[in-house]
Amino acid sequence: xxxxxxxxxxxxxxxxxxxxxxxxxxxxxxxxxxxxxxxxxxxxxxxxxxxxxxxxxxxxxxxxxxxxxxxxxxxxxxxxxxxxxxxxxxxxxxxxxxxxxxxxxxxxxxxxxxxxxxxxxxxxxxxxxxxxxxxxxxxxxxxxxxxxxxxxxxxxxxxxxxxxxx
Length: 166
Prior knowledge:
Pfam families: LrgA. It contains 10 helices and no strands. By secondary structure, the chain is mainly α.
């Protein structure tokens, strides 16, 4: 049942809302199984690709003695496969967008776990809070500086290209 709900959520959250509403109102479309079959198979294929890469990340975590989470291995493998065109972006795009859309839901179990272990975390709240605040501002500052450097480099390239064209 949960798999069915997941697939329905997948189909309805990523589809174009206006087209989907028009097609639902069209009675002939309701009986069209080819649409559902092709859409379902496309999403299942994309999800399977992501799961296989995640599984390879899990295997690497067990094999390699490094303290790196399996999800990081999986993301790096997917990134390298996308860069080298082993996997085309179209092969994982829609499912990736869906997973990003439902990402906040994935944090609920972690939040519940934190609340259930509050007694253990209470003495650590001040150091963790300070570290979190310092880290947030450090990431903001570094990201801002890097963004500014990239924008300036792009503007310099546009200016130099503009003088060549004239």
